[in-house]
Request: fold
Amino acid sequence: MKNVILLILKRTLASVVTVLVISLIIFIGVELLPGDVAETVLGQSATAETVKAFRDELKLDLPPHTRYGVWLKDFVQGNFGNSLANGRPVSGLIGWRFANTIFLAATTALIAVPLAVVLGVLAAFYRNTLFDKSISVITLSFISFPEFFIAYILIVVFSVQLNMFPSMAAINASMSLGAKINAILLPALTLTFVVTAHMMRQTRAAIINVLSSAYVEMAELKGIKRLRIILLHAFPNSLSPVINVIALNLAYLVVGVVIVEVVFVYPGLGQLLVDSVAKRDIPVVQASGLIFAAAYVFLNLLADVLSMLVNPRLRQLAS
Amino acid sequence: MFASLKKAPLSARIGLCIVLINCFVALFAPLIAPYGETSVVGNVWESFSKEFYLGTDHLGRDLFTRMVYGARNTIALAFMTTAISFLLGTTLGFVAATKGGWIDQIFSRGIDIIMAFPTLIFALMVLSVMGSSTTVLIFTIAILDSTRVYRLSRAVAMDIEVMEFVEAARLRGEGLWWIMRHEILPNAMPPLVAEFGLRFCFVFLFIASLSFLGLGLQPPLADWGGMVRENAGAITFGIYIPLLPAAAIAVLTVGVNLIVDWFLHLSSGLHE
Reply:
């Protein structure tokens, strides 16, 4: 067990270093701009005051390494500076939007993960039947569709034709949980389609992979029922790749949320990021970009750690 | 080539048809389109008619014309980006595999870091700093995408690099570039061609997504992702115009995927 902990610690340290390097890249990115950052970003029409405000905001008059130190320290303390567009503190803009994004991603995960695992097990159980093949075709097409295509089809069906759910997922703090879920059901469903396709295919592949091993054949020869073999013999042994895939897809979810948020005008961090990129509001872009990247790295880390914990062979390898 | 085409399964034929039609439309866009790319010819959101085959968009431009030019812009952009990404990725990957040592280490660790960054977020940040122009767009996506190409071409070249004929070429005194060009590249072709199809799909979807977010190709140029965005407001009125370019994107991606599947099947030597 000690070895696993050591392995996990190493992996965690690597992730922390990755996040630090990413923060450095985000920081240097602004630095690399040719000429004066303030004038490039603000454009020709910038007045002397706006240029000065911009320079103060990004602390452009300090040397780069000091500025990076200050920026990172402020960031860790939750002080993200002020937005260039409206001068409000970035942390105020980001806080509740981030919570909204997490809410959407978590709702999606709650629907998608059980659905993907059940479908994957069923597809492996009914392998090469019509059921398996049709699921395979459907998931393949969902993987190749752009997210906004799925989103608009759902809007057309459920919002315009059936008038069941709103096409805009506007939520605010005063709404009850039920009303919130009703509002975000369509975006969550869109993301579910995209993520489930990946997870389900991997689950099916992992289980089928295990089904070809000797102990499954043994179990078959003993006369154990197929469903029981899959649930009790094959599934636990394919847990490691399945958990890995689930966590990786959750990492994808955190980022994939951006486009869905824009389609449904959902007040999340992705929407804010896209708006700020269009406005070239660099402090907001830096902060939200770093948060997205950190969440992505963290979920990747989670994927690795969980599959280390589930897989006894990896525990052995470490010793 | 034609013999194997005759034996191709239905799915591959459908894929091939889709891709060929799209390429034809893209190449001969000015001849096919009845109106100019940006000319306003009718009322806003007119429905299908003899005059406007697919109706008109949010500014009264002919949607069929926009779709045709959209095919041209979107496909050309995605193709160019994929080509650059392959040029970059395979060169670096082959160099890393044949040289090995610290060059390999530097390339590989650098690429690990770029890959730890979610692609969309990376692209958004670059676009926010550099502003959205076609050149920035092509090179950002090409560099981001070349990381995956690098991984694959390095792995493939590693396998080839230990073969006798590479050893022989080395002993003959051939240079690094010659070995990469004449020994490794021809042998690495099949997986790279399949990967080209997959990467093209990815780049194509990625550009479409960025355009949809308003950060890709800038109006008034027609492109499918941007057209979905421009006309998105119509959908709540029960006008399904934005679904057309979105469907075009989906159909082309599925088409390329079908061909790639068939090609992978052929090159893996699995003939039933």
